[in-house]
Design brief:
276 residues; 4-stranded antiparallel β-sheet; 1 helix; 17 strands; globular
């Protein structure tokens, strides 16, 4: 009898201990699987690189554009055709700083600079008048397609008779980052000039002119590397300061154009810098 009682007590202890161990383990949280670990992470495509504050210099070298850009030049107009991979016109563009399309044109020497706004004349077709002298140019079509990836790349074109041996000379780095345009001086102060790190570009105006909003911002900055290949377009960090943030993807010489509206006129301030 005693032997049976001790056996029953032993069995009961085993059951109690086993249940306690099970309860302890079942109360631990289950480790999250990686099936949904990216859920809720907002990844923006390259077509959103020119948002409220623009493209901060991230390289788009390895991204593939889903928009084809064709540029046709006549004696008085520049014609831009936008098509997708199926050769259909790209019709849905987001308004980006008050315009559907920004067209930046530079000559091969990066001396001439134009910021134009072609108008849509047919689905996927934009036109603008031009007054360019004979020479070799590069155009950068800055758009934000609503549902397609887009990478801004240079489109080269020629006007008039051009010597086949044309080549752009090396840019001369500015020793002083101060420039006067139409009687108004600005001073450019970069936080640093190192590649692959955030850089702020601060513009100050000693005469304290009244800056007016231009295309929905207090200023615009366009940057090209010396070869005219790497395009960066940035906007101010805030609505009331002329401070811009960007990133230079590689060491080298860059040309910077700052655009500011003073009175009824847009002043363009060019600077050439070297990034180490």
């Amino acid at each position: 009898m005693k032997k049976w009682i001790f056996s029953a007590i032993g069995y009961l202890l085993v059951v109690i201990i086993g249940y306690s161990v099970y309860a302890a383990f079942s109360s631990q949280p289950v480790e999250e699987t990686n099936v949904n670990k990216h859920e809720g992470h907002n990844e923006t495509g390259s077509n959103n690189g020119h948002g409220d504050h623009g493209n901060h210099g991230e390289s788009e070298e390895h991204k593939e554009s889903e928009v084809n850009v064709e540029l046709n030049v006549t004696s008085a107009k520049l014609n831009i055709l936008l098509t997708d991979k199926e050769n259909q016109p790209v019709e849905e563009l987001e308004i980006n700083h008050e315009k559907l399309l920004h067209l930046i044109i530079v000559d091969e020497h990066l001396e001439q600079y134009y910021h134009l706004h072609p108008e849509e004349v047919a689905p996927g077709i934009y036109e603008v008048d031009h007054q360019l002298t004979d020479g070799v140019y590069k155009a950068f079509v800055d758009i934000k397609p609503k549902s397609l990836e887009y990478v801004t790349k240079p489109v080269e074109f020629t006007i008039g008779e051009v010597n086949e041996e044309h080549s752009h000379a090396s840019l001369q780095v500015d020793t002083e980052l101060q420039r006067e345009v139409n009687g108004v001086v600005t001073i450019l102060e970069p936080s640093s000039l190192k590649a692959n790190e955030p850089v702020t570009l601060s513009y100050t105006f000693p005469s304290n002119p009244e800056l007016q909003p231009y295309l929905g911002a207090l200023g615009h900055v366009v940057i090209l590397d010396e070869s005219g290949t790497n395009y960066i377009h940035v906007h101010p960090l805030s609505d009331n300061e002329t401070i811009f943030e960007t990133l230079f993807p590689a060491a080298g010489i860059y040309k910077i154009w700052g655009e500011f509206q003073i009175g009824e006129e847009v002043h363009v301030y060019p600077f050439t810098i070297e990034v180490k």
